[in-house]
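Give me the fold.
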Amino acid sequence: MAATVTPEVLWAQRSSSAEANKNFIYLTINIPDVPPSNLKLHIQPTSLTFTGHSDSLKRTYHLELEFYGEIDPSATKINHTSRDVEMKLFKKELADAYWPRLLKESKKVHFLKTDFDKWVDEDEQNEAPEEDLSNFGGMDGMPGMGGGAGGDFGGIDFSKLSGAGGLGGGDESDEEHSSDDEDMPALEGDEAEEAEEAGEKKDESKAAA
């Protein structure tokens, strides 16, 4: 019988009171070797439910998140690779301030970590380079979307959403984004400490340069 586990989730964010395309959450669910046919993703304005099964690893991944604020499910962008599912979830309310945390409930959870590869401090986000989103596909016209309020993505060909790379085509980038527990940031909750750590890392890299 396949084991059911909670996958590791990485997140970062941007915010804007004027531009909707700069007001979003980066969310990455690490689920190695899960084919598109074994994915089910249900996105609602305040929550996300994900289930994926890996035949080779004999493992079922299940995740339920309740967000701190509302998002616009119809604007979600997705990229599926052989290692993970990456998403851009656009915040419904335009605001300059960051969400204080990803989840509604203020508690630490072992599977949720800050994505320092994508994280920038709130007061430095306007100077951050634009992310390359060429591999992301939108959700317009996808079956099962239920009018843009949410939907199940069971059986959808994610490779058609993922640009030229598609499923299994992102091995090189996967290596760059591989996660080692020793390199992982702090758990969800202490955002102030995380931001401070990120700033120290940036200062060290500038000094080394």
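Helices lie at 171-176, 191-208.
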